[in-house]
């Protein structure tokens, strides 16, 4: 059975608003520096005295109804090679500044910090973020989906933070070569966000409603250039590497072995907004390791991409689809075999069009009889209306020179090819109150036909008091995404959700309200296999400590034998039914304290029945 999301899809098309950007009246003029700027955390350069000033920030939290209590001043200027930023963050209360960590890309809500959000195309969808906390730790990331930040992206820029008794000053220099923009555009989207833990206040220069992150590009102001930003000129980076060593086993008296490896990465700016990445025999040993996670679930876990080669404009490839329906996931490349070479062209053609093309080649593995494989991905995205877009994706995974009939009898069987073709519509209203997505995917694999479709849609309304959402998914039992991430197939999922908030005018509570979520999963014949109903009540205090009380009912019908601990004990039987009820509470202390903690407690019971449909 397939659910045609006609009503939801019509809503996605009809809820378009083409009004002018909300905060277009907030303008900061940026002029060429009148003198050299020294990055030292001081505001005494003559260029800063001549630069326009952005001040009078608006409060986002605890309440977005007026100006911020803490004062912030921002100035920007530029020269032929760099953009310069100065942020003076005045004290809102006596005492030391609060910093949780000195690591790059710190946790936003646990540090006194200042952030820049920059949208060079002013399309309210993609951009760049730079900033620092009060101890000088840097933050940088790629912005996508109108307000999300991918912190895996790291680039070369320079900053200094200087602490005074009454303020802390952040001064930064960002090379034009580190960002992507279109020549000739003199109006960029921009906003500045500040988090001050001592006063429990989050603020921004252009006002942002409290239900949205300060990174929301729908609410940026305008950065007006006195002249078109300069052409960054030739932008080519070459990163060669050479590895060598010696191994010798003295016990066997074998001759010494001299392992060696050589490779090259290259990044070439085809235009100021379109980038070409090339790699030959890449080495990813410098990439951060994944977090260690215990998996008690029936399905594989998702770990984000951290290899820099795949990150820039990676949202156009990897974010196509939903969290558990991804036709392409770059970490599948090089998972079982080394990458020999690859090329990747990605970026903006103009304000309305984005292009992505990637071709990667992996080598064969004799130990596992894995053939050489080629991965080709093509993505095209067109902006429509104010902030929405329509996207197309083609994924092709091909085993080169491979025929299953020619393999050794004991060798594993691999597919000759797997292809995915997809269309996606992303809704984002001009004020960001309405968001949604509708997708349709079809896979092509040898010997598989029928039930190889996937479609899904969601629609969400978010206001200060209400958060209402609906999502449904259908994944056919023969749908296959070998180069993607789709841990479960052959199901239909329905997920309604509603939250209401109340805002007391006085007292210790900032907001409180109930939340109801329901997740219902069926097989393709609409027979129930999973269900979770959760009712909760959340309380947010004025110091940003939180308390949530909840109750849930969960039901699972296992479709395969399952051993959650994998220690050799008997598995839970296929088609057995399991259900349990639970109540609990979760508490997180206020982030302003030197010692922070979180508490969680729950109580419940379980039941099991041997029953099913084979």
CATH level 1 name of the domain at 33-225:
Mainly Beta
Q: Count up the helices.
A: 4
Backbone CA Rg = 27 Å
Distance between the termini: 18 Å
CATH architecture title of the domain at 33-225: Sandwich
Shape: globular
What proportion strand? over 45%
Helix content: under 10%
* Average of the residue pLDDT scores: 90
What is the total tally of β strands? 31
List unreliable stretches of 5+ residues: none
Named CATH topology of the domain at 33-225: Immunoglobulin-like
Main beta-sheet annotation: 17 strands, antiparallel
Based on secondary structure, the structural category is mainly beta
Q: SSE layout and pairings?
A:
Blueprint: H1 6-14, E1 27-32, H2 46-50, E2 53-54, E3 58-61, E4 72-78, E5 82-90, E6 113-119, E7 127-133, E8 138-144, E9 148-150, E10 158-163, E11 167-175, E12 187-196, E13 201-204, E14 221-225, E15 236-244, E16 260-271, E17 274-280, H3 308-311, H4 315-318, E18 339-348, E19 353-362, E20 373-384, E21 388-399, E22 417-428, E23 434-444, E24 453-462, E25 466-475, E26 491-500, E27 509-522, E28 528-541, E29 546-557, E30 576-588, E31 598-610
Parallel strand pairs: 1-4, 1-14
Antiparallel strand pairs: 2-4, 3-13, 4-5, 5-11, 6-7, 6-12, 7-8, 8-9, 10-11, 12-13, 12-14, 15-16, 16-17, 17-18, 18-19, 19-20, 20-21, 21-22, 22-23, 23-24, 24-25, 25-26, 26-27, 27-28, 28-29, 29-30, 30-31
